[in-house]
Amino acid sequence: MPPALIRKIDRLFARWDKNTSPGCALAVVRDGQYLFKRCYGMADLEHGIPITPSTRFDMASITKQFTAACVAILAQQGKLSLDDEISRYLLEMPRYNPPVTIRHLLNHTGGLRNMYLAMVLKGYGDGIAQFDWGDTTLPFEQEYRVLCRQKGGDFRAGDHWDYSNMGYHLLALIVEKVSGTSFRKFADSVIFRPLKMASSHLNDDKDELVPNRARGYMARKSGGFCIWEQPSGDPGASGLFTTLDDMLLWDRNFRKNRIGKTGLLDILQTPAILNNGAVQGYGMGLMQFVRRGSRLIGHYGWYLGYVSVFVHYPEHGFSVICLKNVSEEGEWGVPSVLVEKITDLCLADVLKDEPGKKALKPVNPPVFLKLAPEKMEKFTGRYRASDGGECNIYFGGSTLLAGGNWEGKVEMNPIGENLFQIAGKSPEERIEFAAGKAGRPIRLRWQVDGKVAWELVRKGPLPAAPRRFNTANYSGCYSCDELETTLKMKPRGKALVIRCIGTTRPPWEAFHVEGDTFQSGRLGLLFKRNRRGRISGFELRFNFSCINWVRLD
């Protein structure tokens, strides 16, 4: 690699290239050989151990492609079919109509209940509004028991694509039932040993000591770092520990397959197809799409203090592997931006330009501002696009919320007086408000990667609250049979304070936004009335999830 190119890559990672910071192991690969390999920062700050190519990282969701490979190998052996109904192997699971198949789980199109939401409603985790799982890893047995009680899923299998970690946990369980051995041992026998990935394993014991493991860290706002890690003992969706050198061996297998039988790579690179014929940019544990005119496969991984990226451009024999052991505010999307920049530098002569797209993206995490409520409330209202699409902007008590209906509200973090970043998305997914006379917003621009993806015009204020609106009317206890959980609500001004009965977790708040609807972070609560006009229950919605609760008093 030319020295000038090496210097450019080093500058991208300079913030971690010190002995007082966690960092990353980075590789650029061409035709199965290292084009560039470098490690930045420390694997263990307490003991002064630097990151090396043999340092083991928790790979989080990059595990999924290995899980998919195990399932595909069993299919090649004739021990299962990808189109088998999952209840054939998981007898405790309810039977869905239409059936949920193994292929649906592999492609995230099964429509299983969002178990993160279900379990946090039962009192697990730190905060329902933020879905903060900073100190909680749920035993699979508890999640599985709750899943088996569900009377239905979030949508009909094959109708939509919705990322599901639970689906991949179930795939690991199916592998064990079909193979007659543990998921860890099966993966070792059909993947790691044949590829000589001697430093890789699927962790099935959260208390296991892992030699040469990088500690996971979180950057503190006040400066410095703290430990942020909790290995999962339930592999399938995550649990892979591996090294930079072992990931090179996995990358080589995409060029010349050495596991399973002929055709395995074709199976692993088959994208998901929905019931309506729409082809998705994901399938078999791999993202699959075209970027700047070139086909790309790969995956990202994020869990607590670990962030990893593996991307492969088959037609160019080019890959980038980035393994980090630190998570920072605004982290999600930053490693992928770095990997994209490396790719653009190394493949500048073959990648096609994307008209209207900015050549460079900001790498540093954005700085969120603290705006006064009145400065955010002025943006609320109903917005409509020329194609008929609508988006409502709400004030959720501490931040703005955007959504076209009550399925999929997203938080908006202020990075300017009239510019907001979409929470949980790339730093380049933003909403900008354009003001008219007297400073009143008249236009909303939803930007993605520097381009305006959606432009809407403000049509008016949000619907007014009922004339006799009284938060006390919504107080009481609400039960959900599927979750075996009861929530108790008490009024506090225009908000409801909600506590899960029988747990010690702190209460959370839902703020009134319109009609009989409240919002808590990304969750919508739609209260229902009986024939006499009294509140009888509510629907709790998040993305495709809709969970019904009945009022007890």
Radius of gyration: 24 Å
Tell me the name of the CATH class of the domain at 373-460.
Answer: Mainly Beta
**CATH-defined architecture of the domain at 373-460:** Beta Barrel
Global geometry = globular
Tell me the structural class: alpha+beta
Q: Mind summarizing the main beta sheet?
A: 8 strands, antiparallel, barrel
Strand order in space, largest sheet? 16-17-18-19-20-21-22-23
Describe the structure.
The chain has 553 residues and is an alpha+beta fold. Among the domains are: 373-460, Lipocalin (Beta Barrel), CATH 2.40.128; 471-551, Beta Barrel (Lipocalin). It is built from 11 helices and 31 strands. α2 packs parallel to α6 and α2 (63-76) crosses α7 (183-192). The termini are far apart.
